[in-house]
Amino acid sequence: MAAIATDLPQQRAATSVEPLKMNAGVKVLTKSTDLKEIILEYAERSRFVARTLLQGMSENLGLEEGYVEEILKLDSMFQLFAVNYYPPCPQPDQAIGLPPHTDHVNTADQLEIFSNGKYKSVKHRAVVNNQATRISVVIANGPAPDAIVGPASPLVQRDGRPLSRPFKYIEYVETQLSNTVDGKVNLDYAKIQDN
Prior knowledge:
By secondary structure, the protein is an alpha+beta fold.
């Protein structure tokens, strides 16, 4: 079981981001029992919302009920919880809080792949300013680490070809964590290139 500290540091460099990562079964370390309970409840509720949204998207794609839950192994879904701390930056035009990327927002890369391009991943970024501290709380829900993420078979049959190659979700996470965040690097990695 992994251990995670939740206390934010008092001082960081202007471009610093402090991530906190967790998934089901992770022990949250904090001096505050109340904070631990709040984080765990927030995580549980966000998983419920994610599953509900995925059920609606699956229905919209014309997939059988339960298809997305089974294929993406949502009973063992991956969850990432991050608290990003951005102190005031004296030269915000010279710094980026977090460069543009498409990791886990809105439909996310995995859903663009799973939907065979029907849903699009959305690029987003974090910016710093010179007046106020900014803290963002991010929670991302994804397939189980060992789930194979690829275009849904019924959609490939309907569309005539897959737009992306299948891969284990943990491969995506490892690639994302090992690369500098730079736009759609991981999404491009999964796409099948036309010759």
